[in-house]
């Protein structure tokens, strides 16, 4: 049940990518995040809403003209850092293995 709960929160094509971009680069505006993660605005909006609902991403409305919104990771999301690093390293090793077997 715990694995399923985890996958419900961070599973899918984009969630870990977005978390990784925000981890490496800090707070981002919507268009920057869309560009850096190479995700469509429509899909980005959906994914950010889900991440915000699960308390992984913080949405901050900036007092600028025009109004801008920044997204950043919550402290709660940072508890995933160790898991993400393990998955990153596994992915590197898996890719090397698959390439070497061709």
Automatic annotation (TrEMBL):
UniProt-listed Gene3D superfamilies: Winged helix-like DNA-binding domain superfamily/Winged helix DNA-binding domain (1.10.10.10)
Classification via Pfam families: HxlR
Keyword Endoplasmic reticulum found: no
Positions of the HTH hxlR-type domain: 1-99
An example Gene Ontology molecular-function term: DNA binding
Domain of life the protein comes from: Bacteria
Residue ranges of the TM segments: none
Keyword DNA-binding included in the entry's annotation: yes
Keywords from the named record: DNA-binding, Transcription, Transcription regulation
Name assigned to this protein: Transcriptional regulator, HxlR family
Organism: Pedobacter caeni
